[in-house]
């Protein structure tokens, strides 16, 4: 194990790596409940989607772990599953098309194949390595703010407001109070250097939630997304349901080539830059970037991501991508692929114990996301806000546009476009790498499709 994962070289050990893998899994286990629920609205069988989600996450994470030795976990991406359901399947169903999810799965499959080709020609690797340093640090900070906002939202600490866009949630609600208490627990454990503070924080918050449910403070309201926190084993089967294997419908392309191309491009665009942003953020936090800000074995990491997407489509789920919740495991000390192997194994175990893992509420993992967001904010100290205006503003736009538009891809888009524009206006066009020109063109096409 030492020889394969090079634990000593990365200043870690087996116990730390396994603990980090468990932490990563618990931080992203919500996808096992959310993805089946969301794709069921697209007409898919929720039981089969649960199986596909768990297996594709295990496969993708395992490929990443063994192929790159990075502590990065993969699963069906949030946002991409929403696009799958609400922007592809439901509109197609309204056109009278039967089983539109088969068309969406075909689009995800094609997207994965395109990603493999882009990785083989090293375009994605060049992009991830040629992004300017300041923008990379801005992306890391932006992702930190982004996942902090996700954590605050999951706990009801931050809520939507028609007058001020965002507002403070109900301070007397159990999710709000327990998530905030869980965050403070993690901070206290970190102060006293207790082993596994993030993991203990998640479990403590979940335990307090179960107690709150028994006392009547936490009230079950499925319509509000408040489900029972206590695992229910009565009447359940421990055998996973069969997923929709290779359920592609390519016949739609024959008469709707343009529409299908737009669907694939939208999947492709969001996944391309979400993955790049995620890898940069996780790698920076895990100290995987070299002195020039480049990610060693970037092509392998990107190939693992592409293969995960293809596997997910074949199994019957939406696009598989690198998860920012991996930062929770990194914050716990995870530095090698052993963290990913642990997470992958737990996804397979989850197939047979779904009531346990799907009972972990969003507000229990919220403290971990908020704490990791704080850790990732440390990269702002590496940013330069002076000197080259393109670097300074590019990093700034990458940082602020992620949380304020709720999209990693949007943050990268505005960061790169700002950088390109200011480089051109300052007479430094010769300093722009070819891959950044291509990225600018892709973003221009993306904006054109958004306008359309």
From TrEMBL:
Single GO cellular component term: plasma membrane
Keyword terms of this UniProt record: Cell membrane, Membrane, Transmembrane, Transmembrane helix, Transport
TM regions (residue ranges): 20-42, 48-68, 103-123, 135-157, 169-189, 198-220, 302-324, 344-375, 396-422
Main location: membrane
InterPro entries associated with the record: Azg-like (IPR045018), Azg-like_bact_archaea (IPR026033), NCS2 (IPR006043)
UniProt family annotation: Belongs to the nucleobase:cation symporter-2 (NCS2) (TC 2.A.40) family. Azg-like subfamily.
GO MF annotations in UniProt: purine nucleobase transmembrane transporter activity
Highest taxon in the source lineage: Bacteria
Keyword Transmembrane: yes
UniProt xrefs under Pfam families: Xan_ur_permease (PF00860)
PANTHER family: XANTHINE/URACIL PERMEASE C887.17-RELATED, XANTHINE_URACIL PERMEASE C887.17-RELATED
Compartment(s): Cell membrane
Membrane topology: Multi-pass membrane protein
Protein name (database record): NCS2 family permease
């Amino acid at each position: 194990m030492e020889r394969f994962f090079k634990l000593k070289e990365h200043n870690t050990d087996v116990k730390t790596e396994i603990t980090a893998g468990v932490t990563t899994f618990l931080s992203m286990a919500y996808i096992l409940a959310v993805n089946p629920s969301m794709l069921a609205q697209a007409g898919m069988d929720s039981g089969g989607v649960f199986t596909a989600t768990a297996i594709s996450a295990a496969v993708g994470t395992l490929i990443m772990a063994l192929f790159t030795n990075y502590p990065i976990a993969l699963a069906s991406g949030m946002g991409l599953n929403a696009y799958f359901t609400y922007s592809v399947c439901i509109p197609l169903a309204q056109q009278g098309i039967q089983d539109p999810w088969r068309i969406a799965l075909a689009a995800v499959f094609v997207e994965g194949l395109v990603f493999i080709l882009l990785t083989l020609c090293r375009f994605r690797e060049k992009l991830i390595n040629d992004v300017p340093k300041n923008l990379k640090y801005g992306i890391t900070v932006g992702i930190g703010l982004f996942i902090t906002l996700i954590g605050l939202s999951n706990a009801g600490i931050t809520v939507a407001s028609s007058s001020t866009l965002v507002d403070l949630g109900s301070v007397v609600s159990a999710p709000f109070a327990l998530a905030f208490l869980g965050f403070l627990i993690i901070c206290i454990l970190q102060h006293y250097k207790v082993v596994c503070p993030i993991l203990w924080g998640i479990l403590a918050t979940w335990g307090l939630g179960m107690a709150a449910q028994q006392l009547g403070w936490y009230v079950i309201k499925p319509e509000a997304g408040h489900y029972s926190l206590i695992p229910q084993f009565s009447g359940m089967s421990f055998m996973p349901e069969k997923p929709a294997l290779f359920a592609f419908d390519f016949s739609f392309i024959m008469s709707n080539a343009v529409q299908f191309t737009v669907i694939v491009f939208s999947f492709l665009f969001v996944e391309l830059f979400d993955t790049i942003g995620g890898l940069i953020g996780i790698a920076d936090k895990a100290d995987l970037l070299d002195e020039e800000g480049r990610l060693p074995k970037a092509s392998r990491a990107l190939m693992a991501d592409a293969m995960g997407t293809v596997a997910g489509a074949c199994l019957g789920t939406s696009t598989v991508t690198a998860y920012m919740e991996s930062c929770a495991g990194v914050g716990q000390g995870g530095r090698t692929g052993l963290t990913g192997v642990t997470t992958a194994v737990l996804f397979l175990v989850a197939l047979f114990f779904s009531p346990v893992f799907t009972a972990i509420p969003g507000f229990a993992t919220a403290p971990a996301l908020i704490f990791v967001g704080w850790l990732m904010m440390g990269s702002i100290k590496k940013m330069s806000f002076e000197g080259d205006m393109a670097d300074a503003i590019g990093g700034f736009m990458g940082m602020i546009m992620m949380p304020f538009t709720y999209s990693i891809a949007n943050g990268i888009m505005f960061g790169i476009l700002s950088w390109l524009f200011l480089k051109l206006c300052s007479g430094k066009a010769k300093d722009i790498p070819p891959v950044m020109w291509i990225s600018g063109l892709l973003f221009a096409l993306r904006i054109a499709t958004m306008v359309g």
